[in-house]
C-alpha cells in the first residue's frame, strides 16, 4: 500500500510554502524563472521532453479516437487514418452502455453505489481514530500507532480467503455490504496515518484553548478540528475514490461477476478477455469506466498532489 | 427486507447505498454521544469510542485473516491435512512457478528503476518551463486511469494482424514495424519478451507518480544552494549530479520503494492483458488463479504469504524511519 516516511518532510515544506501567501510565492517563482532561462535554451532537453510527452499520450489518444469510429472502420483501418477520412459518432458508446450483451450503464450504477460509502466510511472512522492518536493520551499509544502504520503495507491478498469464507458464513458474499466493508477496512491504516499527520500539524494552543473553555473531545473534534481538516479530507477522499473506483481485485473477490453488484472494472476486464477483438465495444467501454476518475482527477488535481506528497500512494 | 442484500434495480441500489451511509452515521453518532457526557467521563471510555471502531475493523479484516492465511498455508488444498512447507516448496521448486517468481522479480526491479529514471528526467526537463503545468498533466493522467483501462489501452497498441496483403494493421506498434519494413509481431504471445511489454504498461502508469514527488522535491531545494553552485560554475549535468540528486535522495528512496511495493502486488494488468497465460503470470495473479480458479486454498495462501514476506523488509525500514521522525518531533 505505501511507504510514506521521508515524504512527511515534503508535506511540511509544502505547508510552509502555502502559508507564505501568494505574494512571496510569486516572487519565488519569478526568481526561479529568471534563474532557469538556461533550461529552455537546450534544444535536446526540449526534444526529449516532447518525445516523452508524445509517447505517454498517444496510446490513450489512439483508443479515444477509436471509440468514436464506426465498427467497420475500426476493423478495416488503423485509427491514425482518421485524419484522411474523419467520421465520428457515438454508436459504440450507445451499444456499450445500453446494448443487451454489455449493459455497462448497469455496472456504472454499481460503481457509484460501491464507491460512495467506501469513501465516506473509512474517512470517518480514520478521522476519529487519528484524533485519538494525536490528541488523547493513553497507555500503549505509540505501539498501537506503529502497528497500524505497519499494517499499511500488508498485501490485501493475505486477507482475501479468510474474509471471503467469513462473508459466506454471514450470507454477505456477493452483496454491496461485503464490498463496502472490505474497502473500508483496507483503507483504514493509510487513512489513519495520513490524517494523523495532518492533525498533528494543528497548533496545540488551539486545542488547549478549547479545553480551557470546557469543551470535551467530541466538541473539540467537530468544532475546532474538522473545519481545519477539510483539505486533508479532500486529499485522502480523492485517493480513496480513485482507489475504489479503479479497483479490480476486491470487487472480483467479493462482488462476483453478476450485474447486481459488480462494478465497471470487473465487467470491462471480463470483456477484454471474452470479446478481445471487438474493439468498438472495448474502446468505448474502457472510456466509460475511465471518464469519472479522469474528471475528478483533473478537477481536484491540487488536492491529489497534496495527498501524494503527504504520504505516497497505496497500490 | 430482501432488497437490502439483493438490490437489483437502480432505485433499490441507490436506496441501499443511502441506507448504508445513514446506518453508519447513526451508529457513529450513538457511540460519540455515549462518550460525550458533560461530567468529564473516564478517559478510557473516550479513547475506546474514538479508536474502537477502527481498531475492531482492522483486527477483523486485516490481522485475523492475515494470521489465518499464514496458518492455512501449511495445509493442503482443502485445509484438512497438515503438509508442512510443501506449498512453499512447490512455489519455489516447480519450473512453472519459478517462472512466476522470475517474472515478479523482473517487474519489481524494472518498473521502479525505469519509471523513477524517466520521472526524474522529465521533472528536470520541464521544471521552470512555460508549459510545465500542461506537460506534467500529460504524464500524470495515467495515474487516474484504472489498470484495467490501461491494460486495454495498451492491448490496442499491441494488437496484431497476420502479415498478409489486404489486412491492415490496427495496432500502432505493429503498424510502425510494417512501415519500417519488418514483420508484425504477436507482442503479448511471444515469450519471453511479452513480459517486458506488460511491464511497459506499469512503467507508463508509475512514471507520473515518480515525476510528481521528485518535481516537488526539486522545487524544495533551497535557492541559495542552487545559486552558490551556479557561482561555482556548475550547470547542466554537473548541477544535476552534485546538487539535485543528493538533495532529493530521501524522495528518491520513497519513490522507488513505493513503486516497488505497488508493482509487487500488480494483478490487474496481467489479468486484463494476458490472463497470466503465455508465461506472463506474476505472484499476485497466480495467487488469484490458484485460490479462486483452481481452488488450491493452501497453495494460494502460501503465495499470499510469499508476497507478505517480500514486503517485510520495507515495513521494518519504514517503522525505523517513523521512529526517527517521531523523535524529531
List keywords for this structure.
heterodimer, A: 315 residues, mainly alpha, MetI-like fold, 17 helices, 77% helix, 0% strand, globular, disordered N terminus, B: 329 residues, 2 domains, 15 helices
In short:
Chain A: Residues 108-300 form the ABC transmembrane type-1 domain. The complex is a heterodimer of chains A (315) and B (329). By secondary structure, chain A is mainly α.
Describe the protein's architecture and organization:
The complex is a heterodimer of chains A (315) and B (329). By secondary structure, chain A is mainly alpha-helical. Chain A has a domain at 104-311: Orthogonal Bundle (MetI-like fold). Chain A is built from 17 helices and no strands. Chain A is globular, with a radius of gyration of 24 Å. The N and C termini of chain A lie close together (5 Å). Chain B starts with a helix and ends with a helix. Chain B is built from 15 helices and no strands. The radius of gyration of chain B is 26 Å and the shape is globular. In chain B, helix 4 (86-93) packs across helix 15. Chain B has helices at residues 2-5, 10-35, 43-72, 86-93, 95-126, 132-140, 147-157, 172-179, 193-219, 223-231, 236-247, 249-264, 268-273, 283-293, 297-328. Chain B has 329 residues and is mainly α. Chain B has 2 domains: 2-72; 86-328, MetI-like fold (Orthogonal Bundle), CATH 1.10.3720.10.
| Total of DSSP H or I helical runs spanning 4+ residues of chain B | 15
Briefly note the CATH topology name of the domain at 104-311 in chain A.
MetI-like fold
The CATH architecture of the largest domain in chain B is: Orthogonal Bundle
Kindly report how far apart the N and C termini of chain A lie: 5 Å
What would CATH call the homologous superfamily of the largest domain in chain B?
A: MetI-like
Amino acid at each position: 500500500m505505501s511507504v510514506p516516511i521521508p515524504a512527511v518532510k515534503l508535506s511540511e515544506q509544502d505547508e510552509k510554502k502555502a502559508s507564505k501567501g501568494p505574494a512571496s510565492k510569486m516572487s519565488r517563482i519569478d526568481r526561479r524563472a529568471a534563474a532557469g532561462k538556461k533550461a529552455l535554451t537546450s534544444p535536446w532537453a526540449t526534444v526529449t521532453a516532447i518525445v516523452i510527452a508524445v509517447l505517454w499520450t498517444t496510446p490513450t489518444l489512439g483508443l479515444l479516437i477509436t471509440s468514436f469510429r464506426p465498427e467497420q472502420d475500426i476493423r478495416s483501418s488503423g485509427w491514425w487514418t482518421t485524419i484522411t477520412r474523419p467520421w465520428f459518432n457515438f454508436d459504440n458508446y450507445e451499444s456499450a452502455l445500453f446494448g443487451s450483451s454489455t449493459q455497462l450503464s448497469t455496472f456504472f450504477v454499481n460503481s457509484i453505489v460501491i464507491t460512495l460509502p467506501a469513501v465516506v466510511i473509512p474517512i470517518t472512522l480514520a478521522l476519529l481514530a487519528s484524533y485519538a492518536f494525536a490528541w488523547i493520551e493513553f497507555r500503549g499509544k505509540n505501539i498501537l500507532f506503529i502497528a497500524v502504520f505497519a499494517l499499511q503495507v500488508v498485501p490485501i491478498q493475505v486477507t482475501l480467503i479468510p474474509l471471503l469464507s467469513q462473508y459466506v458464513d454471514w450470507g454477505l458474499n456477493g452483496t454491496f455490504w461485503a464490498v463496502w466493508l472490505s474497502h473500508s477496512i483496507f483503507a483504514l491504516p493509510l487513512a489513519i496515518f495520513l490524517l494523523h499527520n495532518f492533525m498533528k500539524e494543528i497548533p496545540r494552543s488551539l486545542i488547549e484553548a478549547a479545553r480551557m473553555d470546557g469543551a470535551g473531545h467530541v466538541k473539540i473534534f467537530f468544532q475546532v478540528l474538522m473545519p481545519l481538516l477539510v483539505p486533508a479530507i479532500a486529499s485522502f477522499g480523492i485517493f480513496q475514490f480513485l482507489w475504489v473506483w479503479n479497483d479490480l481485485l476486491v470487487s472480483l473477490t467479493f462482488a462476483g461477476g453478476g450485474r447486481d453488484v459488480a462494478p465497471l472494472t470487473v465487467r470491462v476486464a471480463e470483456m477484454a478477455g471474452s470479446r478481445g477483438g471487438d474493439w468498438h465495444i472495448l474502446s468505448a467501454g474502457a472510456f466509460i469506466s475511465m471518464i469519472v476518475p479522469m474528471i475528478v482527477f483533473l478537477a481536484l488535481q491540487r488536492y491529489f498532489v497534496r495527498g501524494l506528497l503527504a504520504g505516497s500512494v497505496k497500490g | 427486507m430482501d432488497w437490502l442484500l439483493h438490490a437489483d434495480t437502480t432505485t433499490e441500489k441507490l436506496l441501499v447505498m443511502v441506507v448504508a451511509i445513514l446506518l453508519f452515521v447513526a451508529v457513529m453518532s450513538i457511540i460519540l454521544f455515549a462518550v460525550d457526557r458533560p461530567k468529564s467521563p473516564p478517559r478510557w471510555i473516550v479513547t475506546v469510542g474514538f479508536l474502537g471502531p477502527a481498531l475492531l475493523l482492522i483486527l477483523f479484516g486485516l490481522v485475523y485473516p492475515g494470521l489465518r492465511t499464514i496458518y492455512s498455508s501449511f495445509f493442503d488444498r482443502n485445509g484438512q491435512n497438515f503438509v508442512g512447507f510443501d506449498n512453499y516448496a512447490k512455489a519455489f521448486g516447480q519450473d512453472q512457478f519459478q517462472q512466476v517468481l522470475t517474472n515478479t522479480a523482473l517487474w519489481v526491479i524494472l518498473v521502479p528503476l525505469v519509471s523513477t529514471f524517466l520521472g526524474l528526467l522529465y521533472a528536470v526537463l520541464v521544471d521552470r518551463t512555460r508549459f510545465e503545468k500542461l506537460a506534467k498533466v500529460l504524464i500524470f493522467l495515467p495515474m487516474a486511469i484504472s489498470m484495467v483501462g490501461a491494460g486495454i489501452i495498451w492491448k490496442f497498441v499491441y494488437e496484431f494482424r497476420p502479415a498478409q496483403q489486404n489486412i491492415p494493421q490496427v495496432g500502432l506498434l505493429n503498424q510502425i514495424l510494417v512501415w519500417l519494413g519488418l514483420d508484425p509481431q504477436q507482442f503479448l504471445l511471444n515469450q519471453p519478451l511479452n513480459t517486458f511489454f506488460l511491464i511497459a504498461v506499469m512503467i507508463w502508469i508509475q512514471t507520473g507518480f515518480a515525476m510528481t514527488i521528485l518535481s516537488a522535491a526539486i522545487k524544495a531545494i533551497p535557492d541559495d544552494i542552487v545559486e552558490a553552485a551556479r557561482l561555482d560554475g556548475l550547470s547542466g549535468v554537473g548541477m544535476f549530479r552534485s546538487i539535485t540528486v543528493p538533495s532529493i535522495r530521501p524522495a528518491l528512496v520513497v519513490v522507488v520503494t513505493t513503486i516497488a511495493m505497488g508493482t509487487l502486488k500488480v494483478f490487474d494488468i496481467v489479468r486484463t492483458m494476458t490472463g497470466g497465460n503465455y508465461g506472463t503470470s506474476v505472484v499476485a495473479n497466480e495467487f488469484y488463479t490458484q485460490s479462486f480458479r483452481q481452488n488450491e486454498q493452501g497453495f494460494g495462501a502460501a503465495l499470499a504469504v510469499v508476497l507478505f514476506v517480500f514486503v517485510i523488509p520495507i515495513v521494518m525500514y519504514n517503522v525505523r524511519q517513523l521512529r526517527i521522525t517521531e523523535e524529531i518531533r
